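FIELD: query
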Amino acid sequence: MGVRGGGWDVRIRQARIVYLGYVPILVYVMAKVAIIGASGNVGRYTALTVSHSPYVSELLLFGRPGKEEVLHGLASDLHDSFAARGSQADVRYSCNEEDLEGSSIVIVTSGVPRKDGQDRNDLAHENARMVSEIASMVGRYAPNAILFIITNPVDVMTAVALKYSGMKPNQVIGLGTHLDSMRLKWYIAKYFDVHVSEVHTRIIGEHGDSMVPLWSATTIGGISIRNLPEFEDLPEQKIMDDVMNAGSNIIPRIGVTFYGPGDAILTIVGTILGNEKRILTISTFIKSEIHNIGDVCIGTPVRLDRSGAKTIAITLSVSEVEGFRKSVDKIRTITQEVLLRLEGD
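FIELD: result
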């Protein structure tokens, strides 16, 4: 089932260099991207943002049986959007597992959304069963894809997806603290009155209350933030409270966050398909690369390209190591509880 938006061959899976005379020309990767849970708010906006990537030749809107009419409507609406902006991408919809075959990236947005006043980790047991079933399905039909988890609590769900997909650790990633890092970047830029591109910073650890800002690795215009006199007055705790409570401040007003996550997802998808080898902070499995702390899926800096995620070993300050260890211990405990419960089911 589907609505066609163009006639490109979607089976091209690798970038390659061709020569026009002596001039090398890079042929872009053209990829199929599937969005599981496409009928939800986050899934819908993700479909729109991802469709703007120049590397996407086919977009598959995937949902559970019974959602065919909704998915058909969404596919038709997106097709009109593609036509209006001159996109050559195909958009299709399906509830058939076999249609996931050939996907380069499978994005999972399915799950029970967080309610007002609810902690992300309260969702763990509710969403784990769904994510485990989806991961098993992706492992069967798209074993060479990158499996990209958005469902909360994202660190725990990334671990569930890794176990039940049977895929390699570098293939299974979660949105993690990427959006949190971008929020922190924005607040710092606003405080110092500089363009956001001049700020480089990141948050590691849990996508939640135990996240850890890396002030030791924060720079403005290439200058360590600690070498700037204004840093002494930087309201660090106030900024971090705003970052941590960003979702909680949005959900009571509009019911869900989707613009921020949707554009953050596009950044990661573009980085993978463009083979850009950028350093982004996302949730992935770490062994002991960071101060011998690990054995868990959690937000850390990784080098991201078509092959997936490669964890970057970094040196932290003493307080950052302590905070990261606490965050890892928290997520490991919740992950173990969730996996044990799934095994019991």
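FIELD: remark
The CA atoms of residues 175 and 305 lie 15 Å apart.
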